[in-house]
């Protein structure tokens, strides 16, 4: 690597430690020591942004595979044997499914990773990775595992304001934003195995962090700009992609107020099958109805998808279902309580 390769990271916000680890790993690769890299994060958290910057900054020959849907043919991930350099594979969660024979393509890919002289830099959905690491110990193939951290408030602010000219956005104070709920009610599916049934148990969530936030505001003087970005970072749970969505929805150009930054409220009530379908969409990130039918073996997928769309938990575009970014925090919390993810 040379100084000229730094330009790939010039406009990148966050991920300082991860960038340094990637630099070190590439330098070691130049010296003959290969340690494959897995970049792991939840949806919308910046995996592709980071790996694109890596591609720009390296002086090595780079081969890039951008996977955009579930892979059904092994040839789609087969690399030329004479290749020598760095191989970037984005969205590796498209290489497997939780179905019979669903690991065949992933197994072939991992064999290539192990036997190749190339340095592999890969990206993975966090919840797909957690499942794979539990089932097949996928981490053994990638000694360098970088789980992307949540953005700080300052990083979220830097990400947003970098898109505008100085003083282009008007930050206006108000008090309406303090009137937000600290308690939310939902239902969580619990399976009673002896009876073979699933029942929805009432659940209460206390938003202590939001309460502490407003109490702290009363103790220390904060500007409207400070409050807006603290709320934005809190509601997005430090996820840069989600923060962008909330910002775009909240901004009444060129004005933004604390009361404009609202956390979406999702009343999630699902049975186990619905929870599993929602998990598949969370972990795969982009999936068709036909693929979900094959995964679940359930004839009610149509009805489940309609219900998830009606609850605004997912969206559909050109027959591909994806998670609603604003619902990410609620969906993850719900599925963890239901024991579907960990």
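Sequence proposed for the structure above (342 residues):
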């Amino acid at each position: 690597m040379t100084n000229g390769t730094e330009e790939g990271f010039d406009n990148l916000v966050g991920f300082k430690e991860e960038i340094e680890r990637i630099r070190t790993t590439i330098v070691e690769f130049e010296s003959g020591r290969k340690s494959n890299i897995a970049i792991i994060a939840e949806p919308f958290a910046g995996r592709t942004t980071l790996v694109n910057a890596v591609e720009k900054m390296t002086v090595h020959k780079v081969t890039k595979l951008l996977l955009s849907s579930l892979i059904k043919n092994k040839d789609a991930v087969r690399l030329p044997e004479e290749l020598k350099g760095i191989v970037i594979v984005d969205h590796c969660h498209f290489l497997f499914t939780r179905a019979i024979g669903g690991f065949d393509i992933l197994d072939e890919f991992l064999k290539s990773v192990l036997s190749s002289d190339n340095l592999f830099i890969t990206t993975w959905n966090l919840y797909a990775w957690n499942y794979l690491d539990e089932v097949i110990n996928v981490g053994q193939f990638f000694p360098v595992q970088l789980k992307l951290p949540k953005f700080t408030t300052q990083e979220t602010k830097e990400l947003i304001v970098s898109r505008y000219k100085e003083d282009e956005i008007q930050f206006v104070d108000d008090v309406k934003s303090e009137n937000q709920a600290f308690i939310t009610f939902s239902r969580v599916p619990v399976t009673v195995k002896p009876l073979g049934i699933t029942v929805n148990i009432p659940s209460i969530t206390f938003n202590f962090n939001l309460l502490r936030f407003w109490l702290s505001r009363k103790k220390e003087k904060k500007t409207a700009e400070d409050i807006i970005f603290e709320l934005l970072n809190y509601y997005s749970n430090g996820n840069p992609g989600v923060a962008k969505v909330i910002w775009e929805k909240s901004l009444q150009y060129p004005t933004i107020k604390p009361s404009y930054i609202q956390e979406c409220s999702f009343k999630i009530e699902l049975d186990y099958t619905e929870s599993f379908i929602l998990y598949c969409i969370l972990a795969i990130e982009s999936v068709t109805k036909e693929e979900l039918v094959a995964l679940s073996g359930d004839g009610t997928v149509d009805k489940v998808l309609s219900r998830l769309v009606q609850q605004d938990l997912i969206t559909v575009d050109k027959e591909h279902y994806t998670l609603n970014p604003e619902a990410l925090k609620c969906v993850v919390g719900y599925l963890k309580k239901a024991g579907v993810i960990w």
